[in-house]
UniProtKB/TrEMBL annotation:
The chain crosses the membrane at residues 44-70. This is Bactericidal permeability-increasing protein. It comes from Eudyptes filholi (Southern rockhopper penguin). One of its GO terms (molecular function) is lipid binding. Coiled coil: none annotated. The cytotoxic action of BPI is limited to many species of Gram-negative bacteria; this specificity may be explained by a strong affinity of the very basic N-terminal half for the negatively charged lipopolysaccharides that are unique to the Gram-negative bacterial outer envelope. It comes from the Eukaryota. The keyword Secreted applies.
Length: 169
């Protein structure tokens, strides 16, 4: 069982390592096993380091869009106009379309649970949406709380590690 510490802080995490067993099989040369404790301490270390706090600005949105949808290289603008069509209060507040910046933050340590064929990640967080004004000043439009529960299953197909992601809630 491994433990991951936040950089510069080797104090113990708020978890207790539970014993686990590895099935006795002798048909492979190498076996890898990761305990739930390893994932819990990793989550704690990343949370403590602020790694779950992300700011998504216009240029990052373009690169994400380009990475996931490589068919065309058209520019993708997310603006107050798009949010205004979904949330009428934003349309009333911001008549002129401005670029939007998103600030995503984990508000609690993400919980990782191992199951028989998958693992579950529970994340509590918040998202603050800003309009970027012409002088580059961010102005807060709204904040929302987010609670996500996701299951991830990993399988090996044709010597490739494949994963499937399911948003439970």
């Amino acid at each position: 069982q491994g433990i991951v510490y936040p950089a510069g802080n080797c104090s113990g995490p708020p978890y207790v390592a539970a014993p686990f067993t590895i099935p006795d099989q002798s048909d492979s040369m190498l076996y890898l096993a990761f305990s739930e404790y390893f994932f819990q301490t990793s989550s704690f270390a990343y949370y403590t380091a602020g790694a779950f706090n992300i700011t998504i600005a216009e240029e990052v949105i373009f690169y994400l869009f380009f990475f996931f949808f490589l068919q065309t290289c058209s520019y993708f603008n997310i603006s107050t106009e798009i949010f205004g069509s979904i949330i009428p209060e934003v349309a009333k507040y911001s008549v002129t379309p401005y670029p939007v910046m998103l600030k995503l933050m984990a508000t609690e340590i993400p919980i990782i649970s191992l199951e028989q064929d998958s693992f579950t990640v529970e994340i509590q967080g918040s998202m603050e949406v800003f309009a970027v004004l012409p002088d580059s000043t961010p102005q807060s439009l709204f904040t929302m709380n987010i609670a996500a529960n996701t299951s991830i299953a990993l399988n090996i197909f044709d010597q490739k590690l494949m994963g499937s992601l399911c948003l439970n809630r």
